[in-house]
Amino acid sequence: MKHHKIAELLKTEHLLQDYTVKGWVRAFRSNRFISLNDGSTINNLQCVVDFENTPEEVLQQINVGAAISVKGTLKESEGKGQRVEIEAQEIKILGEANPEEVKKTILSPKRHTLEKLREQAHLRVRTNTFSAVMRVRSKLSFAVHQYFQQNGFNYVNTPIITGSDAEGAGEMFKVTNFNLKDTPKNEDGEIDFKKDFFGKETNLTVSGQLEAETYALGLGQVYTFGPTFRAENSNTSRHLAEFWMIEPEVAFCDLDGNMDLAEDFIKYVLNYILENCDDDLDFLENRIIQEDKSKPESERQPMKLREKLKFITENNFKRVSYTEAIDILKNSKPNKKKKFNYIIKEWGADLQSEHERFLVEKHFKCPVILFDYPANIKAFYMRLNEDEKTVRAMDILFPGIGEIVGGSQREERLEVLQQKMNELGIDEKELWWYLDTRKFGTCVHSGFGLGFERLVLFATGMTNIRDVIPYPRTPQNAEF
Ligand code: 4AD
Ligand code: MG
């Protein structure tokens, strides 16, 4: 007999029928009530065990963490807390879990800290918090593809192994080939590890942008959605060494069009979550009640997650030039609370996260799109403005997150691009293919990159980026 998903049974109107479910035991009370979860929903199905007719050795093995199948009749539940329950006729143990061993893991039914859960990243998806986060993450991925596909974009897969540094920031992981016979040797017979991708020097990509640009100048509108890598030693709750980035690129589109696209896109995917992740949002909203140890339980408030998401989808993002932002920061008084007391002095300096947070959380109190940054703090490919000091860059800053999007109109003029590359010491020979796009039918074009994990952070109300990706890669952690 086919087995059913618990999500389906919890909603069905077809009661008093027999069903089979398979899942993992979350709790077993009074030798009678099993809470079963199969990952299809945050909610458990209560299975009522007929303990007189269940063999003793089966009863013995219904332990937290075990995989079981339950066949029985779905009925209206008499107990509180659930609409339906299954009256079990037959229980099979599919995979046992030794209670003594379980006690040592995060599967044991007590509250574990998020730090503890990170140490057992392979098991944490069996907890409510992580299953909710990962279902929302999956739905967000779907919404990303749906948005672009519905709007005439082509999905392109840009290379993971690449010879170029798209951001010119030197934050690349080198690719090493241990098949040493392919690796060139120097005059002393030593292996040239620099060139060990079959004789070439290569890295893991930091961004698919440059390749996406070449495709936009042929397919018109494209997007990437893939893993990117940064060898920056940043130990923050916002940085990963491996993260997923969404990078649309559009021909015949200027910076204003780029801002419109980014704003529309973000609103669409967050709205999709509001409409399609009800149970998980309920759970995530309430989770904070238990997490917030600063107050007694009776005073704890559920997080206003839906309100926060709704606010984003219903209000315009504030568009502010870098120069205006500097004026605002200069005129703002240093805040007594430590967070915002670092006030910027000079036009031309990069904004620190406290400046970004000040603008978003204290000053405008909404997402902010900052544009027209000083040329010398941004990447080489950005379109130089007529003032020759600023470039058509844009960053989108989000409350509680900081930068969620970085993008720009691209420098489409060959000579200007070449001059900029020369100034920065970027070898034209290495990017000959990129420069070709400016030789053959160049045009105004723009794009941006959105850090997927930062989006998931915002959508779930989680606070550490390590908790929204299955296996976080950070300077301390690549164990799994
Ligand atoms: O601002 P970034 O570096 O921009 C680019 O890579 C451009 N080539 C994108 C483009 O125009 N196609 O990165 C884009 C976004 C950031 O705004 C941030 O959300 C995310 O990627 N990001 C990271 N997320 C997690 N961990 C890191 N170490 C990240 N670095 C950037
Ligand atoms: Mg950036």
TrEMBL record:
Subunit (UniProt): Homodimer.
Domain (Aminoacyl-transfer RNA synthetases class-II family profile): residue spans on this chain: 134-470
Reaction it catalyzes: tRNA(Asn) + L-asparagine + ATP = L-asparaginyl-tRNA(Asn) + AMP + diphosphate + H(+)
Organism: Mesonia maritima
Main location class: cytoplasm
Stored CDD domains: AsxRS_core, EcAsnRS_like_N
GO molecular function, one term: asparagine-tRNA ligase activity
E.C. designation(s): 6.1.1.22
Pfam families noted in UniProt: tRNA-synt_2 (PF00152), tRNA_anti-codon (PF01336)
Taxonomic superkingdom: Bacteria
Protein name stated in the entry: Asparagine--tRNA ligase
Similarity annotation: Belongs to the class-II aminoacyl-tRNA synthetase family.
Class of this enzyme: ligase
PANTHER family the record matches: ASPARAGINE--TRNA LIGASE, MITOCHONDRIAL-RELATED, ASPARTYL/LYSYL-TRNA SYNTHETASE
Protein's cellular compartments: Cytoplasm
